[in-house]
């Protein structure tokens, strides 16, 4: 068998067993387009092999003819000098033939070795494919069994309903109404740890507040606490600027999420190729800006004379940012590198907000907010996400800073982990879990918040959040309780004492508190929200077209705009174009860096400089973070955007 046919035999089975390659600089695994390119490449290689075979035949043919001609010349009667030259040419031709034969033999040996290993590779690839299919089937079967067991448990006749308690753990004694019943399709997540480590008991009469060995504090709500009254009841007057109150209804496309994500177990979410069908028509920058929906809590906190009282409002604000996520299981658009989003609402909200995508791998966004009421907020959030089979974990990394100009109080905290459950089977639902520690770096006051996970067996309120606000000496001053999707309350502690040890030897702290005050309550969703991606009133306005924004603003992103209008097929095509444009820009940056950089490490680094933010060392956390360096609002006033990259 010739060399060319044997090589062709090796190429064909390898083309059938190719696995996706995720070593590229983009966010995608092997797509149908990539596979088409792979087959084209293999076809080109086969054509080149045909050319090589033709050349090989010609070399053999002309080489033999040359050898015969030289032999015939040697037999002629020619002068001695010419005879010597012919002899030398003949020797060189002989050496060429010997070398060519050696090269052909070496190629033959290489092909035999490659054929041997090729069979091993084919068997290994086939085995991996079979194991992968088996794993997918096993995971899907386990998920269905798990779902069936959960439903059986919830419908068990012996399962008792929540009894009325004389006290609650980590919450207040105020009874919950019947209007918070769960959807019958809601799935529950088994709790990974115990609930809160304290017990709260509401006390009314002054004589009931005495206990031996207890720590007694202020026994009444004082005039300084009045700022906490009705903080959630902010009257909504007519807006100064009329904004839209609806967007086109979401099209009814059926698409199986598991069919796309089953090949991505354990991978970073930003590297999973996802059509816009699983997105919502907002970018991650706009979702980050949604944290400001309950900005009035911070406006109210400006007037607090007590730092621990101010901490209560800051804690309520930190929890309120999760209220829009309870039904929002769709994925926001991953911003293009250099993409920005502004929220210029000085007139109606009293603030200006700017976000910029400062890194693509890993995805990272910088955010800065200025309020005319006397506070500033900034953060750099890097999204780390992993698909674990049945659930998806989303971990925002980075510190959030909040500073009040008048008092100089500087608060720092980090976000909790979000988890999307039932990826394979059942109704998708989202949960927030983990602990949040808020620290006032000026006064050293602290707040410890705990987001409790769903549990099959817990009698606690679903989506519960509880916490304690302590002063600089570590003395507990307020207890916080509520749910991250509905409301938060605070109660002033008048006395604390240890409880009796439980059967397992653990001891909890008992806080006697005054009746709770409502800090924050979620706004009702707009009418028809279920057909508009469950957007809040603020979210509905974020992608509304505005004049004068930067050319990199998320409102101008074409695939996102097409999706909002319901043109999902066109949006998917446009999304692929934008991603390819981004990959080409990255290749140009790497090539420019390779020409100008010295070390090998520098040559492989994607050097991108944000336009409106710059890297600095955070003095409070010691981490490098992107801080707003100014210039955006001045550029907007001049309408001078010449420095902005062309990303769309």
From TrEMBL:
Gene3D superfamilies: 2.40.160.120
InterPro entries found in the cross-reference section: OSBP_sf (IPR037239), Oxysterol-bd (IPR000648), Oxysterol-bd_CS (IPR018494)
Record has Transport as a keyword: yes
Region Disordered, annotated ranges: 153-184, 559-583
Coiled coil: 125-152
Biased amino acid composition, Polar residues: 161-171
UniProt similarity note: Belongs to the OSBP family.
Name listed for the protein in its UniProt record: Oxysterol-binding protein
Organism (species): Equus przewalskii (Przewalski's horse)
């Amino acid at each position: 068998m010739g060399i060319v046919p044997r090589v062709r035999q090796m190429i064909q089975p390898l083309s059938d067993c190719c696995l996706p390659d995720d070593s590229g600089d983009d966010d995608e695994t092997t797509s149908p387009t990539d596979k088409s390119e792979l087959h084209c490449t293999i076809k080109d290689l086969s054509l080149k092999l045909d050319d090589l075979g033709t050349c090989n035949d010609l070399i053999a043919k002309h080489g033999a003819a040359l050898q015969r001609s030289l032999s015939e010349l040697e037999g002629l009667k020619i002068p001695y000098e010419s005879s010597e030259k012919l002899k030398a040419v003949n020797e060189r031709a002989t050496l060429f033939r010997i070398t060519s034969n050696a090269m052909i033999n070496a190629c033959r040996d290489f092909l035999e070795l490659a054929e041997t290993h090729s069979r091993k590779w084919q068997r290994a690839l086939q085995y991996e494919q079979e194991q992968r299919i088996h794993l997918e089937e096993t995971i899907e079967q386990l998920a269905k069994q798990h779902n069936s067991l959960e439903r059986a448990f919830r419908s068990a006749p012996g399962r008792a309903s929540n009894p009325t308690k004389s006290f609650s753990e980590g919450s207040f004694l105020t009874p919950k109404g019947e209007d918070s019943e769960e959807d019958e399709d809601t799935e529950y997540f088994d709790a990974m740890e115990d609930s809160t480590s304290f017990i709260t008991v509401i006390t009314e009469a002054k004589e009931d507040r005495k206990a031996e060995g207890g720590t007694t504090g202020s026994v009444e709500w004082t005039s300084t606490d009045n700022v906490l009254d009705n903080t959630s009841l902010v009257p909504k007057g007519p807006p100064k600027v009329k904004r839209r109150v609806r967007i086109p209804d979401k099209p009814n496309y059926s698409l199986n999420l598991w069919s796309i994500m089953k090949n991505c177990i354990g991978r970073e979410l930003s590297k999973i190729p996802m059509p816009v069908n699983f997105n919502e028509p907002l970018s991650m920058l706009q979702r980050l800006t949604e944290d400001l929906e309950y900005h009035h809590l911070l406006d109210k906190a400006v007037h607090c004379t007590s730092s621990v009282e101010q901490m209560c409002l800051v804690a309520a604000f930190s929890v309120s940012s999760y209220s829009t996520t309870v039904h929002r299981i769709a994925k926001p658009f991953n911003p293009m590198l250099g993409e920005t989003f502004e929220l210029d609402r000085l007139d109606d909200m009293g603030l200006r907000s700017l976000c910029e995508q400062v890194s693509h791998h890993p995805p990272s966004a910088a955010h800065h907010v200025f309020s005319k009421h006397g506070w500033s907020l900034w953060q750099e959030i890097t999204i780390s996400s992993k698909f674990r089979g049945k659930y998806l974990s989303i971990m925002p990394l980075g510190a959030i800073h909040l500073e009040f100009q008048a008092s100089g109080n500087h608060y720092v905290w980090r976000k909790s982990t979000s988890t999307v459950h039932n990826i394979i089977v059942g109704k998708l639902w989202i949960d927030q879990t983990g602990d949040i520690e808020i620290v006032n770096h000026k006064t050293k006051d602290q707040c410890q918040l705990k987001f409790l996970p769903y549990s099959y067996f817990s009698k606690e309120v679903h989506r519960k959040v509880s916490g304690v606000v302590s002063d600089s000496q570590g003395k507990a001053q307020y207890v916080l309780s509520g749910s991250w999707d509905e409301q938060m309350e605070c109660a002033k502690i008048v006395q604390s004492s240890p409880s009796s040890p439980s059967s397992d030897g653990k001891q909890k702290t008992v806080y006697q508190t005054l009746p709770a005050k409502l800090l924050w309550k979620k706004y009702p969703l707009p009418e028809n929200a279920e057909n508009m991606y469950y957007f809040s009133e603020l979210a509905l306005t974020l992608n509304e077209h505005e004049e004068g924004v930067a050319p990199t603003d998320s409102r101008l992103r074409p695939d996102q705009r097409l999706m909002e209008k319901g043109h999902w097929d066109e949006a998917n095509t446009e999304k692929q174009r934008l991603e390819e444009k981004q990959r080409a820009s990255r290749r140009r940056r790497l090539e420019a860096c390779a020409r100008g950089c010295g070390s090998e490490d520098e040559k492989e680094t994607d050097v991108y400089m944000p336009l409106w933010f710059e890297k600095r060392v955070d003095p409070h956390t010691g981490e490098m973070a992107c801080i707003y360096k100014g210039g955006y609002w001045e550029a907007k006033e001049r309408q001078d955007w010449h420095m902005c990259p062309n990303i769309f």
